[in-house]
Every structure is written in structure tokens, then in C-alpha cells.
Amino acid sequence: MKGRKSRLIPGCVAAGALALMSTTALAQDTYTLRFNHVLGPSEPYHQGFTNWAERVAERTDGGLKIEVFHSAQLGVEEDIIEQIRQGANIGQNTDSARLGNYVPGIAVVNGPYFVSSMEEAFSLADSPTMQEWQQELAEEHGIKVVCFDWVQGFRHFFTNTPIRTPEDLSGQRIRTPPAPIWQESIRALGAEPVAMNFTDIYPGLQQKAVDGAELVYPNITAANMHEVLEYANETGHILLVNFQVVSSDWFDKLPEDYQTALVEECRTAGQETSATIADAVEKAKATVAERGMTIVDDVDMDAFRQAGEKAYEVLGLTDAKNKVQAELGK
User: Fold this and answer.
1) Distance CA 301, CA 235 (A)
2) How many CA atoms lie within 13 Å of 243's alpha carbon, on the beta-carbon side?
3) Which of 51, 177, 294, 299 has the smallest count of CB within 10 Å of its CB?
4) For residues 34 and 65, is the Cβ–Cβ distance under 8 A?
5) Where is the signal peptide (predicted)?
6) CB–CB of 274/151 below 8 Å?
7) Selection from 82, 199, 196 nearest residue 141 by Cα
8) Taking a C-beta distance cutoff of 8 angstroms, is the pair 212, 229 a contact?
9) Contact 123/130 with Cβ under 8 angstroms?
10) Contact predicate 237/309, CB 8 Å
């Protein structure tokens, strides 16, 4: 019996060691992405990000988990992007205007009247120039674009005076995100841009730090900005295309099937959310009208389109804009 026990003990030890190794391997194969966005929990984007997270977890059997944080709970975009560049397991919903701080050409996507439909925005993924810019972001700046199929709708000027021409914006201080293409776009269209984070817009309007903002309709209803704004001026000057970004270092360490799941489900959720937003825009527009805002739809669009070209000229992006638009067949 003593001899039998001595033979069993090493076997048990070996089995225990194998179990421990399996547990360790499993732990090493589990990844978490903490994903941040500035919008509120009632916005369609938040549900879209939640859907993305659920599908990725399902496809990877829980091996890749996305934790979604709304209302800039993890911090402002610029700070998050810098953490991404350092390799943190964190993601951010952002735009090409901010990415243009690293690769200037990509900023054209958020320029005035660059694309005119969701379909054009989705087709940007096939542009060779866009692919080159994304590669440069990843290899030289540590920012991996997972996808950019998230179209938030046309941005308009929301103010306390009616706007029909670029001249009507003269002297108006309009909130914009803090990025050159956005600043120059708003300046080219006739207003004075004021850089301000999204969460500061409502108090900024209350305190008269700004006279208005350029946003999409669902932003107005979600943040109750009808309480501090009177006019919705339908300039449609930017079709907002959002980019989902993570650390390229972190992404490259994922198993290949996890990478595929992250990208494919990002695109699927993005296109679904874009369609949802298109419906939500009409509902939000009706809601702001019910809440007392005046819709100004007799805008001189030709004058605004012509004025918008100056933004590309000032930033030296005219050639980049023309190149990508040519690849889209425009």
C-alpha cells in the first residue's frame, strides 16, 4: 500500500500542475477593452457600443470583453487618445478631426461637405488613400482604427439667432471640438470657433461663453439643449463620421480571430447604429420643434458649400480632399 501511494502522489502533483497551467493559459487568453465615449446613455451610439460588446464577447466565448463607459467617464477624448498611444487597453469613439492631429490628411473626412450620404461614408473603407493613412496612424502613432462605419448624421448650426447665409454667422461664437479642421471649417463658414468639450456645451451656453454650437439633432434632445438654444439652422455642413480607435500595440497582441471579431462586429454594429440614427434624427427634429425651437430650412446651401472650401485651402488639404473624393467617384 505504501508503494502504491508513493506512485499516486507524483501523478496527482502532475495533474495539479497541468490544471494550474491550463488556468494560467486561460487567464492569459482573456482580454478586456475599456471603451470610452462622450455621449449620454440615452444616445443611439451607447446602445450600439453595447451591442458591439455583446457580440464580440459571444464570438470569442468571453475571451475578449468590452466594457463601455458613457459620458466621458474615463476622461476627455484627447487624454484617452494619448493613453491609447501608450498601449493602454482602452478605446475611444472619436473623429478624423482629432486623428488629423497625428496624420493631417485624414482630417478631410470631417471637412465641410466632404461626403453627402451614409453610403459614401461606408465606401471610404475601400479608399487606398484612407487605408494608407490608417496604416500610418498605427505604425507611427500607435493608434489602430478598428472601423469608422459610425455615421452620426449631418451637423447643423444651433443658435439663438436665425442663420441662412455665412454672413449671418459673423461675430457668432460657435462651440467646436478642439481640432484644426473643425476650427477652420467653422471659421470658413463665417463664425468664430470656440474649442470646448461636449460636456461643457450646456453650461457654456448658459454662461454666454458661446453663442451656439454645431451638432446633430439627437445631441440636442439627449442633452436638453433646447433649453438654451432657439434655432436649428439646417446647414448640414458636416456629415459626422466617427472612428473607433484602440492601441495598435494592444490590438496586435490579440489572437487573430479576436482581431477579426473586433473589426467585423464593429462594422456591423456601426452600420446598424447609423441606420438607427438616421431614423432618430427625424424624431429628434420633430421633438425640438415641439419643445419650441424654430427650424430654419431655407439656408443658402450653395453659399455655404463655396465658403467651406476655404477650410481645405487654409490647412493645405485641398489635394488630399480631391484625391479621396476621386477614389469615391465624386
Assistant:
1) 7
2) 25
3) 294
4) no
5) 1-27
6) yes
7) 82
8) yes
9) no
10) no
